[in-house]
Specification:
Blueprint (H helix, E strand, L loop, with lengths): L21 H13 L2 H14 L15 H11 L6 E5 L5 E5 L8 E6 L4 E2 H5 L4 H6 L1 H5 L1 H13 L7 H4 L14 H5 L7 H24 L14 H14 L1 E4 L6 E5 L7 E2 L6 E4 L4 E5 L9 E4 L6 H8 L10 E7 L7 H10 L5 E7 L7 H10 L3 H9 L3 H4 L12 H19 L6 H8 L6 H36 L12 H5 L13 H10 L42 H12 L5
Length: 580
């Protein structure tokens, strides 16, 4: 995939023996397992230096193996007559149409026997270790990473035509230098980036020990060549390419690497890839009409740019789904907590959750609008939505912009949003103007450029939220000052609500951000090598989220807005927000 990685030519042979004793390396590995986050990078660099020249690689350039990949795919029964692999400059390699292709036309299919899956790993040389290792059994993406390394080291592997075409390195944050990572400070990506590096290093140390000491690992072709760079490469290969497919019997899903299809680059659109169980193959239809010689794109999903940077190693300029996450909750210490929580529950919204500010207009979803309306309700307004006339039906109006709770409620919620976004902007150490100036520097490294673009994009979303909040606040203040009549809910309006995009469902449902965390939890960044840590789901740390400050102090701190803790303290004081 072009945008998923840069290509560097691999010119070394099958590896060289470094001047380091097994005992010395094992001591370093043991030390790595014990290190805290702040000390890990220095130790990793020490290990990498001692392992220089030990990695397995292929003679020749990546491009030299594309014809072999296409021939292998055709031999396996894949479709190869509608496209070819081509280089698209800044986007890297991708698929180019060799004929006109109509929208929704099936142009690509890949049979199961070409796929590298958790199932194929269990049936490979890795199978014995898999049967004994709890981490491999629990974490399919780690299994795929080791499966990839074992097959790369096997001269007779059926997947070599595919593996030889994978990039030699990637632009995922695992490849960032420390100074490049610093550009991500205060962004939504920073905590996941740091955790990703720490967890990958600890995973490597764990499996290094397993490979050299576990009896079921004795036949693995990795004992003489399992470096940190090898593992980082495998982790990035899987992280940028893994997809879910049905198992052979269709009873559940498993993770897979899909050769050839994974050469497609990303654009906005809809998911156009599925799995045909009857023909047992992955199938992809065209996203739109493509003329001969045009690049063929697919849609990777509704990821934010923070997620693209973390998991794919690129920033997508025209991301229609970019967003900044914010964690909001009603403080349990608030007097009206029970009433607010009940109204929110009836609307299918938790009293504490992660929401998002979007790059589009309006910047908030129906769910966030509903939450903020309830959050800002007076006791009388809460009672009206709980036991008032048409209380049950009025729950439907909470996410609909046409039915304000009151002009005062609208003023308060948009004031909150404006204040919240403005304070979050203060957590960044640079301004948007400074970021734009930095991006004009010709000597800026690619990774620094990606990081600064992400940082700037987040600020622009927050700036739009500030602007929108201000405009809405002034609009509703004018409505209040002029004595404008409030649109009142009538029972007959239910027909209108049934067709409104902003309506809320009648049943409880998860927020879209919670659905996306399922995908995030599959990422290698969440995996820890300790058996006790196998439950690796977590809530991302966001800019503005820190310790719990529930607004019990009498006065807000004077310099609060200059720090993350202060931001939360001010918001907690004025709005009763809980940052658990």
């Amino acid at each position: 995939m072009g945008k998923k990685s840069r290509v560097k030519t691999q010119k070394s042979g099958t590896g060289a023996t470094a001047a380091v004793s097994p005992k010395e390396m094992m001591n370093l590995i043991s030390e790595l397992l014990q290190k805290c986050s702040s000390a890990i990078r220095a130790l990793v660099e020490k290990i990498r230096k001692k392992q220089k020249g030990m990695s397995v690689s292929f003679e020749g350039t990546r491009e030299e193996f594309f014809s072999e990949l296409m021939a292998w795919a055709a031999e396996c029964g894949a479709s190869c007559d509608s496209f070819e692999i081509s280089n698209f400059a800044d986007e890297g390699h991708g698929l180019k149409a060799t004929r006109d292709i109509k929208a929704e036309e099936l142009f690509l299919w890949i049979p199961r026997k070409m796929l590298m899956t958790v199932e194929s790993a269990k049936n490979s040389v890795l199978g014995q270790l898999y049967s004994q290792d709890r981490i491999l059994q629990a974490m399919g993406n780690v299994t795929l990473a080791l499966h990839l390394l074992c097959e790369r080291a096997n001269p007779s592997s059926p997947w070599l035509p595919y593996i030889k075409t994978l990039p030699a390195d990637y632009d995922t944050p695992l490849y960032f230098e420390e100074y490049e990572v610093r550009h991500l400070l205060a962004t939504q990506a920073i905590q996941d980036v740091l955790s990703q590096y720490k967890n990958t290093a600890r995973q490597y140390a764990y499996f290094y020990k397993v490979i050299h000491t576990h009896p079921n690992a004795s036949k693995l072709p990795l004992k003489d060549a399992f470096t940190f760079d090898d593992y980082r490469w495998a982790v990035s290969s899987v992280m940028t390419r893994q997809n879910q497919i049905p198992t052979t019997d269709g009873s559940r899903v498993t993770l897979a690497l899909i050769p050839l299809w994974d050469m497609c680059n990303h654009t906005n659109g809809l998911i156009t890839t599925g799995y045909n169980l009857e023909d047992d193959r992955c199938e992809c239809v065209a996203l739109k009409d493509y003329k001969e010689a045009e690049q063929i794109y697919i849609f990777y999903g509704t990821r934010s740019n923070a997620e693209f940077v973390i998991h794919n190693g690129f920033f997508f300029e025209d991301n229609a789904h970019d967003r900044v996450k914010i964690k909001l909750g009603v403080s349990k210490s608030e007097r009206l907590y029970a009433m607010k929580a009940e109204v929110l529950a009836r609307a299918g919204i938790p009293a504490s959750s992660i929401f998002a500010l979007y790059c589009s207009e309006p910047p908030i979803s129906a769910q966030l609008l509903a939450f903020l309306r309830v959050f800002c309700m007076t006791e009388e307004e809460l009672r009206d939505y709980l036991v008032g006339d048409h209380a049950i039906n009025k729950i439907f109006t909470l996410g609909n912009t046409e039915f304000p709770v009151s002009w005062e409620n609208e003023i308060k919620l948009w004031t909150f949003l404006e204040t919240r976004a403005a304070l979050l902007l203060k957590t960044y150490k640079t301004s948007s103007e400074e970021d734009r100036s930095m991006l004009e520097k010709p000597d800026l490294s690619l990774h620094s450029r990606i990081a600064i673009k992400l940082r700037l994009a987040e600020k622009e979303i927050l700036e739009r939220a500030v602007s929108c909040g201000r405009a809405k606040r002034l609009h509703f203040q004018k409505q209040l000052d002029e004595g404008a009549l409030l649109p009142l809910y009538e029972e007959s309006d239910i027909a209108l609500l049934e067709n409104a995009d902003a309506k809320l469902p009648i049943i409880l449902r998860k927020l879209e951000e919670e659905d996306e965390r399922v995908e995030e939890e599959m990422s290698l960044a969440q995996i820890k090598p300790d058996a006790a840590d196998l439950d690796s789901s977590k809530t991302p740390v966001l800019n503005g989220q820190c310790k719990d400050l529930n607004g019990t102090q009498e006065d807000p701190p004077g310099d609060a807005v200059n720090s993350v803790e202060g931001l939360e303290s001010v918001l907690s004081y004025f709005y009763g927000l809980n940052f658990d």
